[in-house]
Design a protein that fits this description.
Helices cover 55% and strands 0% of the residues. By secondary structure, it is mostly helical. It holds the Pfam family PP-binding.
Length: 116
């Protein structure tokens, strides 16, 4: 049986299924301005179709979670951060797991090290 729903309802339902209930919980925490800017950078640099910057919860895991990001995405994020903020995220940094742990952790790291 098929049910017709409007595009907005379909997109909402599709997003909820794709991200799961855990991510929806993380979205209840508001993004700061820096987190919002970083979320926009991530969505645009990775061409995340169907993902809005607001869909990235500040405390939700960036990797191994609902976004489905992998190590190649981490490299692309690092390159985008380097271009935008003027400093490098090094692949050999022993703190990378913490730094890339969430949108909030990455935004805080950027705020501490940015040149622009």
């Amino acid at each position: 049986m098929r049910i017709r729903v409007g595009k907005a309802a379909y997109d909402t339902l599709r997003g909820l299924v794709a991200r799961g209930a855990a991510t929806e919980h993380h979205r209840m925490t508001e993004q700061t301005a820096a987190e919002r800017e970083l979320a926009e950078l991530i969505v645009t640099s990775l061409n995340l179709d169907g993902v809005a910057p607001d869909d990235i919860g500040p405390e939700a895991p960036l990797f191994g979670g609902a976004l489905g990001l992998d190590s190649i995405d981490a490299l692309e994020i690092a390159l985008a951060v380097s271009k935008r903020y003027g400093f490098q995220l090094r692949s050999d940094n022993p703190d990378n797991q913490r730094i890339f742990g969430s949108l909030r952790a990455l935004a805080e790291h950027i705020q501490q090290h940015r040149l622009q």
